[in-house]
């Protein structure tokens, strides 16, 4: 499995995790998190398209950074932690699209 395939698996799982955490959040938290999550999805779609094209663009360092983000997402227990996890994911994707 090449690095782009690994990244595609990882980023898809993490975006889905954030969606589930959002769904389980209170209405008030959803109101705050919604716009950031929408931005994340917009960037995710662009990144996914790029990853599916021929040629490997993902480095080992990218996978390591995604692992750090995954740890942060998995530990996000409150609104502020989720906002930070979403922002970090958006920032990472923004460097790739």
What can you see in these coordinates?
The chain is mainly α and about 100 residues long. It has one domain. It has 4 helices and no strands. The protein is elongated, with a radius of gyration of 13 Å. The model has no long low-confidence stretch (mean pLDDT about 90).
Briefly say what this structure is:
The chain has helices at 3-23, 27-52, 60-75, 79-94.
Top keywords for this entry?
single chain, 97 residues, mainly alpha
Architecture blueprint of SSEs:
Blueprint: H1 3-23, H2 27-52, H3 60-75, H4 79-94
Helix pairs in contact: 1-2, 1-3, 2-4, 3-4
Shape: elongated
Average pLDDT over all residues:
90
What is the chains' assembly state?
single chain
User: Count of helices?
Assistant: 4
Order of helices and strands: HHHH
Strand portion, in percent?
A: under 5%
Number of strands: 0
The termini sit apart by 22 Å
Low-pLDDT stretches are none
Residue share in helices?
over 70%
Largest sheet: none
- Return the domain count: 1
The chain-level structural class is: mainly alpha
């Amino acid at each position: 499995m090449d690095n782009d395939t690994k990244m595609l698996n990882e980023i898809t799982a993490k975006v889905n995790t954030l969606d589930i955490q959002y769904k389980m959040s209170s209405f008030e938290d959803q109101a705050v998190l919604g716009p950031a999550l929408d931005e994340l999805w917009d960037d995710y779609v662009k990144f996914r398209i790029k990853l599916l094209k021929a040629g490997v663009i993902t480095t080992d360092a990218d996978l390591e950074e995604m692992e750090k983000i995954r740890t942060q997402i998995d530990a996000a227990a409150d609104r502020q932690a989720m906002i930070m996890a979403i922002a970090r994911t958006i920032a990472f994707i923004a460097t790739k699209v």
